[in-house]
Amino acid sequence: MRMLDIIEKKKRGGILNREEIAFFVQGYTRDQVPDYQMAALLMAIWFRGLEDREVLDLTLEMAGSGETLDLSDIRGVVVDKHSTGGVGDKTSLVVAPMVASLGVPVAKMSGRGLGHTGGTIDKLEAIPGFSAALDKKAMVDTINRVHMAIAGQTANLAPADKKMYALRDVTGTVDQTGLIASSVMSKKIASGAQVIVLDVKTGSGAFMKREEDALELAARMVSIGKGLGRTTAALVTDMNQPLGEAVGNSLEVVEAIRTLQGKGPKDLYELCLALGSQMLLGAGRTGDPGEAKKLLQEAVASGAALATFKAFVEAQGGDGAYVDNPGLFPEARHVAEVPAPRSGYVQAIQTEEVGVSAMLLGGGRETKDSPIDLAVGLLVRKKVGDFVEQGEPLVRIHASGRERLEAVAARLTEAYTIGDAPVQRLQLVKKVLT
Ligand code: URA
Fold first, then answer.
1. 370 is a catalytic site residue
2. Residue 251 reports pLDDT greater than 70
3. Residue 429 covered by a domain
4. Exactly one of 57, 89, 122, 161 is catalytic; which is it?
5. Residue 357 is a catalytic residue
6. Is 63 a domain residue?
7. How far does residue 176's CA lie from ligand 1's centre (Å)?
């Protein structure tokens, strides 16, 4: 078999078979296929697309290109949850303990933040001592003890995807739904969970700006998961404004703790109930969506979810005193409000700009090796549909230096559109696909 023939076939709109897909995935991972040929194939795929069967085969090949986690030593049906990335998305910190406190094991592999979106591991590292460097045995033991664990992705999980994703990033071939779906799902399949619940974000702060693209991606990922024997659900959810109020690592952990105490922002809690319900249904904890929601609400009201979060933090080396007393998190040196330039209703928020602002404060990464400042970030006080008086705070900035604070304040003022006409609040959960 020759790589050139595979490129030619896809260029002319052909459908690649399993052997051809195995040839280029394995060849590229082993450095037998050069970057220039792989780049040509990816561009041909971008123009010609991939059929469902090709996406399934690509996912399987990439999932099998490295280590796969065998979670069969965990008692119960293991659930994973994944978000395609957003601004202020601390959902995993809340929904994982809610579900785990009901006895359903949650095994989550997470990444670090990049660009305008944050990462779960960075947020958790705001808790002194917390470590996501778990090997398979530590992960299984932790889950059997406290019903949940959140681990950083090991280097050898789906290495084919890692290499192909890096090449896609520099060849204009990231935004193809078949390639994205197989990339995300290859890591989920290799991570071993039996139930996969996906949160596909759409809107100005998401990777998928257009709802129809998010729906297509969600449908493709559900089809892959089911095709490979995993119970899979996807929620398409709004990211036209930050989720909750906090954007920035320790600020988001504090908000997650408040939500587990039953005192968090309504939108964040609503999303956690919707995702958590799918996790419980998928695991067979209950077959009734209404019952699932009730169980989750009770887990918060009784304090069980918060207790599970603390047990999980301590099991992974973190200081549980920070969960009991979030006042222990260090405050950023400079705090200031961004005032509304006029009175009116918030019509829209350029959410990616909010994420970029948090990154520029030092809370996120411009490149994958940038250091981050865990204390800085934003509290978004006004959301779409809110009325605001001129001079009232739109956003509160937590910064480590004055210069950055001022630059970000100007940017955030621009990110808000305020007008006279009342506007509808945004619908958070747009669609559930199972
Ligand atoms: N995230 C991934 O893991 N893969 C993609 O292709 C895009 C986003």
1. no
2. yes
3. no
4. 161
5. no
6. no
7. 10
198 Cβ closer than 6 Å to some ligand 1 atom: no
Q: What does the buried/exposed string (b/e) look like for 253-264 if buried means 16 or more CB atoms within 10 Å of the residue's CB? A: bbbbbbbbeeeb
Residue 95: its pLDDT value, please?
Answer: 98
Is 163 a residue of the active site? no
Same domain, 274 and 374: no
Q: Say yes or no: 259 and 128 in one domain.
A: yes
The ipTM, to two decimals, is 0.96
Q: Do 392 and 358 fall into the same domain?
A: yes
What's the pLDDT score for residue 370? 76
With a 6 Å cutoff on the Cβ, whether 322 touches ligand 1 is no
Interval 379-433: pLDDT, tens: 999 999 999 999 999 999 999 999 999 999 999 999 999 999 999 999 999 999 9
Compute the distance from residue 239 Cα to the ligand 1 centre, in Å: 17
Q: How many CB atoms lie within 10 A of CB 203?
A: 23
Residue 117 bridge partners (DSSP): 114
Look at residue 307 and give its three-state secondary structure. helix
Q: Where are the alpha helices (DSSP H) in 205-248?
A: 211-227
161 has catalytic annotation: yes
CATH of residue 400: 3.90.1170.30
What separation in Å is there between the alpha carbon of 304 and the centre of ligand 1? 34
Mean of pLDDT values over 206-229? 96
The residue among 365, 382, 383, 384 whose CA lies nearest residue 374 is: 365
Nearest-CA residue for ligand 1 atom 7 is 180
Question: Active-site residue among 83, 183, 186, 191?
Answer: 183
Supply the CATH number for residue 272's domain.
Answer: 3.40.1030.10
At residue 61's C-alpha, the angle toward residues 59 and 64, to 5°, is 105
Specify whether 275 is located in the same domain as 208.
yes
| pTM of the model as a whole | 0.95
Q: Domain of 39?
A: 3-49
Residue 311 above 90 pLDDT?
A: yes
| Residue 18 is a catalytic residue | no
